[in-house]
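User: Please go through the entry that follows and flag anything odd:
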Amino acid sequence: MLNEHTVTLLNSLKLFGMARGFAQRLADTGQADLSHAEFVALLVQDEKTYRDNNRLQRLLRNAKLRQQAALEDIDYRHPRGLNKQVILELADTQWIAAHRTVLISGPTGVGKSFIACALGNSAARAGYTVHYTRAPRLFESLQQAKGDGSHLKTLTRLGKAQLLIIDDFLLTPLAEAERKDLLEIVEERHGLGATVITSQCPIKDWHPNIGDPTLADSICDRLLHTAYRIELRGESMRKRQSAT
């Protein structure tokens, strides 16, 4: 009865990891010789593990990544100009703390989105907040936000994410409103957050496709400065997999 009461108290205090660990460890005869201090220390570790796992699940859920991708699953055998050393450097996540940008370009099907989502997964596992969005959906939501009065709030939310992933950038040249919104986003995040952008458009062609030369200068200056550039090439991996 005392043990059941202890579990009830731990749950009422929202110490769910300790409550579960307490019941499991009491049932394990191999831990009968532990001292009181050792037993309590293990329960504290159980609680920390429980909270860490919950936080990770919450970060991944809120990130809304397009793919369940991991850096260790990246295929380096496919000839697409992917430098493994760059990926290993990005796996360290120090670039996120330094608020740097990763620009990934290449034709359709070469794995741009997979790499971006893998970087997002790695960031979440390191404890960073991540927000994934496709560029067309991003600009559409910002346009709708102007209509319902939540535009500023939406921009602020995008600015607060420690890692923002914008997929499928510049599928079409930007409209005037989209250029202005993009400038607000990169300006809000400059020096405060890390950003990953994928695009089928070669990086050297971003400036003319953004449009207005003045806005394009400001946007490219913030995005390209100290950015990691992953410029992929080759045929679609999906075609190769389908043929195989």
User: Anything to note?
Assistant: The chain is about 55% helix and 10% strand. The chain has two domains: 2-62, 64-243. The first helix runs from residue 2 to 12. The mean pLDDT is 90.
